[in-house]
Recover the amino acids of this structure.
């Protein structure tokens, strides 16, 4: 049986000859970074497609001293927000002619450093860090080594950062509960070592202070961002008598809020009849829970685009950019209270 010969590789020279243009003109027409809309360029691209030409973008990038790849470092992809964030980063990178690759690091700074070095060993053009610790040394090390990088969904106040305005978000969530008539309000934040946790708590405190409400310190709980952390916090807040419980809780992410819901169910506390609840991040599940969750929406697509631009267009100001969050009211926060309790 006669074996089929492999198809001949179509070169840029072949495309140029078939298009009736020079090699340099064909190269410019096919460069994904500067896609021309001229009739001549469209003709070259049409011929290239018909011939089956495939541009070696990797080789072209290497000749320019770049790989057109970006490394994204996240604690874990099992976290809904981190997974959604990476999807948006990948889309934003692709629209700018870059490829995004992800590595997970957990919460250990040593593991984070190791994961970052793994990405840098692959000659990425920059790093995007979604890891959360305020005491993280990695951004400082990257600045010292002049490695292009951006922080996403958090900031250390120095490195280029793209995030939501977490203080405004915490204020909006707590102000919503106050406007509904609640004064016995608890706040379950993320870990104290995160800029998101501290900023959302600061926003909540600001709203409480404006309303003349002195929060009970035992009702301000710093927890992790997992459902189990919310459940534990809910157990602490709801285990007492109805008179000793808060009537409203602001949970600093939707996972925490779902954990609080589970604890409330165990203690026979009805949401929203006996407890108003607000989450944060407006994850897709929040609107589809048996009791749809009021949540603070964060524009992840806008944040992702900003993070990519901070790397591919270095030196642009400001280096720290905050996107504005929006409160999305749903059933879990209930209706205005008839009394001030």
């Amino acid at each position: 049986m006669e074996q089929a010969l492999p198809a001949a590789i179509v070169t840029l020279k072949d495309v140029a000859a078939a298009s009736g243009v020079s090699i340099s003109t064909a190269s410019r027409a096919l460069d994904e970074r500067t896609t021309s809309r001229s009739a001549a360029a469209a003709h070259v691209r049409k011929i290239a497609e018909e011939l089956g030409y495939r541009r070696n973008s990797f080789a072209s990038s290497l000749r320019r001293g770049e790989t057109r790849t970006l490394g994204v470092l996240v604690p874990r992809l099992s976290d809904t927000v981190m997974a959604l964030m990476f999807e948006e980063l990948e889309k934003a990178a692709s629209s700018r002619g870059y490829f995004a690759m992800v590595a997970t690091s957990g919460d250990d700074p040593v593991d984070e450093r190791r994961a970052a070095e793994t990405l840098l060993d692959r000659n990425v053009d920059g790093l995007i860090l979604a890891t959360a610790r305020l005491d993280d040394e990695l951004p400082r090390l990257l600045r010292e080594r002049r490695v292009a990088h951006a922080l996403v969904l958090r900031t250390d106040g120095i490195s280029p950062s793209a995030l939501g305005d977490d203080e405004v978000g915490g204020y909006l969530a707590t102000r919503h509960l106050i406007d509904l008539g609640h004064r016995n309000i608890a706040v379950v934040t993320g870990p104290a070592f995160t800029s998101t946790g501290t900023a959302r708590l600061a926003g909540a405190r600001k709203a409480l202070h404006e309303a003349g409400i002195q929060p009970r310190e035992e009702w301000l709980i710093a927890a992790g961002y997992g459902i189990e952390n919310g459940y534990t916090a809910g157990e602490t807040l709801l285990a007492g008598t109805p008179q000793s419980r808060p009537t409203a809780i602001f949970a600093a992410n939707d996972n925490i809020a779902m954990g609080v819901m589970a604890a409330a169910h165990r203690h026979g506390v009805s949401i929203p009849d006996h407890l108003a609840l607000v989450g944060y991040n407006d994850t897709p599940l929040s609107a589809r829970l048996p009791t749809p969750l009021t949540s603070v929406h964060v524009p992840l697509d806008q944040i992702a685009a900003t993070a990519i631009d901070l790397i591919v267009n270095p030196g642009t100001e400001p280096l720290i950019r905050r996107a504005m969050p929006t409160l999305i009211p749903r059933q879990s926060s209930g209706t205005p209270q008839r009394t001030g309790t």
Remarks:
- The CA atoms of residues 293 and 332 lie 5 Å apart.
- Residues 80-95 form the longest helix (16 residues).
- The first strand starts at residue 69 and ends at 74.
